[in-house]
Amino acid sequence: MNDLLGSVGHHVPAERKISGDIELGDVHIRTDATTDIQQAMQRFFKSVEEIKLGLAEIKGLQLEVVEMNEHGKALIKTKEVKQHQEEMQAKVNQVNTVAHRVKRKIEALDKENEAATQLPGAGIGSANERTRTTITAGLKKKLRDLMGEFSNLRNQIQEEYRALVGRRLQTITGTAVSDEEVDRVIETGEAENLFQKAFNEQGRGQVMDVLAEIQERNRAVKDLEKSLLELHQIFLDMAVLVEAQGQTLDSIQKQVERSANYVETGTNAVVDAKNIQKNTRKWMLCGIIAAIIAIIIIVLAIQPWQYARNATG
Description:
By secondary structure, the chain is mainly α. Helix content is 81%, strand content 2%.
C-alpha cells in the first residue's frame, strides 16, 4: 500500500497518458491534460498530496505530544504542571483540527471518486477506478493508524496518571494506598481525607502542595481525555471506512480476475479454432493431393491413349 502511495504513476493506465510521479512527499504532474479523465486525475492527485501533507503534520504533532507527555512526568510544582498541561492540550487540539480537516478531505475524495466513474472509460472496474480506490484506501488506513496511536496514547496517559497518583499518595501518607482510594482520588480529585495523619506529621503546607498537584493533573487529564476521545472517534470512523473500502477492493479484484479468466478462455478458444482451421486445411490439401495422385495412377494403369490408338488403327 505504501508503494501505491509512493508511486502512483506506475498505476495510471498508459493510454491515459497521465504524467504523475508521486513520492511520499511530492507530487509532480504536468498541466497538459486535455481530456476529462486527465483533468479529473490531476485534481485527484492534488487532493492526495494535500491529504498526505496533513497526515505528515499529524505524525509530527503526535511525536511532540509523546515527548511532552514524557517531560511532564518529572514535574512537581503545580504552576509548572498547569503550564505544561495547557501546552500539551493546545497540541492535542491542533491535532484535532488537522485530523478533522484530513477526514473531510478523504470523504470529499470518496465523492469525487464516485463521480469520476461516470466519465467514459473510467467506470467501475476500469484501471482508472481501481487506481483511485486503492490509493484512497491507503490514505484511510494511514489516518486510521495515526488515530489508533493517539488512542493508545490516551490509554497510556490514563495508566501513568493512575500510577503517579498512587505514588504521590503513598509518599504523603507513608503507607500503601488501595486501588479503590486511588480511583476515588482520580474520580473526584479530592484526597484530604487521606491526609489527616500527614497534616499532623508533615505540616499542612507540604501536603496541600501535593494535593494541589494531584488536583491540577486530574483536571488536565480529564480535559486531555475529551480531546483524545474525539481522535478516537475519528479512529472508529476510519476503521469502518477502511473495512468497507477493503470489501470494495476485494470485489474489484474478483472482477479483474473474472475478466482475466474470460479473456484467457476466449484467447484459448480462438487459438483452438485457428488450430482446427489449420488442421482442416492441411487434411483437405492432403486429400486433394491424394486424389490427384490416385487419378494419375489410375490413368497410368488404364492408359486410355492406347485404346484411342487401337481404335484409330
